[in-house]
Amino acid sequence: MQCYTICTIKIFKLINLVIKMSTTLRISSILNINQSDLEKESIKTYLHNNLVFCESEIFNIAKKYGISSVEELEDQYKNGKIEEEGTWEDFFRLDHLEAKKESIKKALEVVR
User: Fold this and answer.
1) Domain coordinates in residue numbering, the chain
2) Which residues, in sequence order, are CB contacts of 39 under 8 Å at separation 6+?
3) What's the average model confidence in pLDDT over 1-10?
4) What span, in angstroms and rounded, lies between the C-alpha atoms of 24 and 47?
5) Which DSSP category does 84 fall into?
């Protein structure tokens, strides 16, 4: 039973890969560009769009508390300038967004 499940998953992954490859091949021929260039530019655009989104979310949270980083927000907690109640969600969101932003930047370095 387990082998059947693993084989089925591998088959679906292979089918998805073939579909994806044929889609990028068709689009690259329609646009008359190299398939690998299309894939690279698509990845760069995807990453750039996600980076812009992360940065705008970080900006909104930072503006809300008058800070520029999760470390500053943590300092404000420690100094008693901000209550944890009602703000901890923003703290964890900001921490997550800053980590995601760094990951996206590293990924962008790979495709440049």
Assistant:
1) 1-32, 33-111
2) 24
3) 64
4) 18
5) S
Residue whose entry in the numeric block shows the structure tokens 């703000």: 87
**In a 3-state reduction of DSSP, which class is residue 19?**
helix
Supply the mean pLDDT for the chain.
87
57-99 pLDDT, tens digit each: 999 999 999 998 889 989 998 998 888 888 999 999 999 999 9
Task: Please report, as a single letter, which amino acid is at residue 103.
Answer: S
Q: What digits encode the pLDDT tens for the residues 13-46?
A: 767 766 666 888 888 988 999 999 999 999 999 9
CA pair distance 91, 93, nearest whole angstrom? 5
CB 106 within 8 A of CB 54: no
CB 73 within 8 Å of CB 82 = yes
Nearest to 64 by CA among 41, 90, 83: 90
C-alpha distances out from residue 52 to 10, 28, 101, Å: 34, 26, 9
